[in-house]
Write a structure and sequence with these properties.
Layout lengths: L1 H17 L17 E8 L6 E6 L16 E6 L4 E4 L1 E2 L4 E3 L10 E8 L2 E8 L6 E11 L2 E11 L7 E8 L2 E2 L4 E4 L7 E5 L12 E9 L1 H13 L21 E15 L2
Parallel strand pairs: 1-16
Antiparallel strand pairs: 1-2, 2-6, 3-4, 3-7, 5-6, 7-8, 9-10, 10-14, 11-12, 11-13, 11-15, 15-16
Length: 265
């Protein structure tokens, strides 16, 4: 849901910039047309894999996003020509029944709802193994600041994009941690995850999911991260460039998933 909140922020910021040169500003944000928001993932771990479908809401409404029920949702493994028709339960949440996520395969998402059709495709990259989680401590704001460090060998000669999902004592971080090998192709990487508001203390359990993601998904998450005010100074606001067709918001990703945990002492 972090993506949905960011989309609301982007809407208000875009409208403010558009009318900043006029003397009279009238914004009727509550009448903004709702848009379909799709978030779907296929991984190399055991399914079922989930696709959620909601609708965006007016800016001043609560962050309760209406679910979209009754959609016809399929995911196709184009390498094997296997089509999986997803089952809805609960409302707005669609689950696969037989799909097996496989590295190197391309997956095509198709959503039909209320006379509209939305599509996206994503190819699952090769998995890059995470060697270990270590820690680095610095001082700042009068407090010790400790961040986890992800250690891994980047493969040479191919594009690699990474998304790191962090939890601290079972609580997911709200930050987006991304890295690609544009300047580190083929090198051994020690990637520090800078926690802006979370202070890691001795005894804390840190869990990291390392996802290898394709280039379009990396670009979407990068734009989302850059525009999100909770992730630092935002850039000029705009909807992130999605891989979904026909004006839908959100993304569809097939990626690898590897998890490790470490206790900070």
């Amino acid at each position: 849901m972090k993506q949905l909140k960011t989309i609301k922020y982007l809407l208000i910021a875009t409208l403010i910039l558009a009318v900043a040169c006029k003397k009279v500003i009238t914004l009727d944000l509550n009448n903004a047309a709702p848009q379909v928001v799709i978030e779907g993932n296929v991984t190399n771990q055991s399914g079922p894999y989930i696709v959620t479908i909601t609708k965006s809401v007016a800016f001043y409404n609560s962050n309760i996003f209406p679910t979209v029920s009754g959609a016809i949702v399929t995911i196709t493994d184009s390498n094997l020509n296997i089509v999986d028709s997803l089952t809805e339960n609960p409302a707005g949440t669609y689950s696969t029944k037989k799909l097996v996520g496989t590295i190197g395969h391309t997956y095509i998402l198709d959503v039909k709802n209320a006379g509209q059709e939305f599509k996206a495709s994503s190819t699952m990259p090769q998995q890059v193994n995470m060697d270990s989680i270590t820690f680095i401590s610095n001082s700042g704001f009068g407090k010790p600041l400790t961040n986890p460090v992800i250690n891994f060998q980047d493969p040479a000669g191919i594009y690699n994009g990474y998304n790191f999902v962090e939890t601290i004592n079972g609580m997911p971080s709200k930050q987006i941690f991304l890295f690609d090998d544009r300047l580190s192709d083929g090198k051994y990487v020690t990637k520090q995850l800078f926690n802006d508001s979370n202070y890691i203390r001795p005894g804390d359990l840190i869990s990291i999911e390392m996802q290898c993601i394709d280039k379009k998904v990396f670009s979407y998450l990068k734009e989302l991260s850059n525009a999100d005010p909770t992730n630092g100074q935002p850039t000029s606001p705009a909807d992130p460039t999605t891989n979904l067709s026909n004006g839908a918001l959100g993304y569809f990703s097939s990626h690898t998933s590897q998890k490790k945990s470490a206790v900070f002492h």
